[in-house]
Amino acid sequence: MQEDIKKVLYSQEDIHNVVVRLGKQLAVDYAGKNPLFICVLKGAIVFMTDLIRQIDEFVEIDFMDVSSYGNATVSSGEVKILKDLDTSVQGRDVVIVEDIVDTGATLHYLIKLLSTRQAASIKVVALMDKQAGRTIPVKADYVGFDVPNEFVVGYGLDYAERYRNLPYIGVLDEHVYTH
Ligand SMILES: O=P(O)(O)OC[C@H]1O[C@H](OP(=O)(O)OP(=O)(O)O)[C@H](O)[C@@H]1O
Ligand code: HPA
Ligand SMILES: [Mg+2]
């Protein structure tokens, strides 16, 4: 698996430091608010589980599975719900937890959906923001890393369902796509 990685972008330690920083900030901003953290499956699962353990406040969690990539490295632009929330968001302070914001299609869709469902507030925490990938102008409120315009894997992020279990984030070598 490791031989498919051209370059390590963020080490385990880099990621840990960023997750601690984001967790501390969220703990301050959501003190006493009992927010609902929504993990966007599957990519955000690793980040979500680490993040919530850095927050010393009551939080609730739920999961939503939406997909626009399938097995490709380019977004289809069309977002589908594969698994909906179990919890009502009406009147709740929700925090969407994303591993990466790339084209913005997933986030745009989710923000629209949750506002239709009358969440009291909607904020986004994204481990990574790939601003160069954006085709729809959406912004995350809390960002871990600004990433370059490359396809990254590891720490939850996949290529064709692989590499999610790498403990660091890296750039995939081209040989992986080209055969
Ligand atoms: O800004 P966008 O261009 O919409 O890209 C970001 C989204 O794409 C990836 O999910 P994907 O649809 O690949 O599903 P996965 O998390 O199950 O891999 C990633 O985890 C984000 O949710
Ligand atoms: O760079 C990426 N890597 C993995 N999944 C993704 N989904 C959007 N962008 C990416
Ligand atoms: Mg994916």
Feature tags:
binds hypoxanthine, about 180 residues, single chain, three-stranded antiparallel β-sheet, globular, six-stranded mixed β-sheet, alpha/beta, binds magnesium ion, binds 1-O-pyrophosphono-5-O-phosphono-alpha-D-ribofuranose, Rossmann fold
Describe this structure in words.
Its cofactor is Mg(2+). Belongs to the purine/pyrimidine phosphoribosyltransferase family. One of its GO terms (molecular function) is hypoxanthine phosphoribosyltransferase activity. By secondary structure, the protein is of the alpha/beta class. It has one domain: Rossmann fold. The protein is built from four helices and nine strands. It has helices at 12-29, 45-52, 105-116, 174-177; strands spanning 5-10, 36-41, 60-67, 80-83, 93-101, 121-129, 142-146, 152-153, 169-172. The radius of gyration is 16 Å and the shape is globular. The two termini are 16 Å apart. The mean pLDDT is 94. Bound molecules: 1-O-pyrophosphono-5-O-phosphono-alpha-D-ribofuranose, hypoxanthine and magnesium ion. Residues 69, 100, 102, 151-153, 157 line the site of hypoxanthine.
Write the layout of secondary structure elements.
Layout: E1 5-10, H1 12-29, E2 36-41, H2 45-52, E3 60-67, E4 80-83, E5 93-101, H3 105-116, E6 121-129, E7 142-146, E8 152-153, E9 169-172, H4 174-177
Parallel strand pairs: 2-3, 2-5, 5-6, 6-7
Antiparallel strand pairs: 1-9, 3-4, 8-9
Helix pairs in contact: 1-2
The structure holds 1-O-pyrophosphono-5-O-phosphono-alpha-D-ribofuranose (PRP), hypoxanthine and magnesium ion.
Hypoxanthine (HPA) binds at residues 69, 100, 102, 151-153, 157.
